[in-house]
Amino acid sequence: CVMRMLDFGWANTSEGKGGQAIKEELLQANQSIALVSTLTWSIAWDLFFACATSCYCQQSSEHCYCSTAWDIDGRPLIIFYCFAGLAAFFFMFSTIYAIVQIIMVNEMSD
Asked: pTM of the predicted model, to two decimals?
């Protein structure tokens, strides 16, 4: 039982299927991945740009007005900013990779 769990044999759902059925399965899986990745990418992208610190300084005086996202300051804001950027980057590439796989399956399976 442990060996089957580690060799991912349980994940092979295409046994006994023909080429057309496998193609449909791959297209459906990649479309779902692309949809979820795009939605999550847009959320991470919004978090990435919303958590930046904005400062406005007047030219005539030395007063600056700074605002931070969600009232987070210091190290937690930096960590949140970095992870939001990484999430946006990785979900963007997940979307691109899923779309490229859809194109490859459609072009190579004829």
From this structure: 0.69
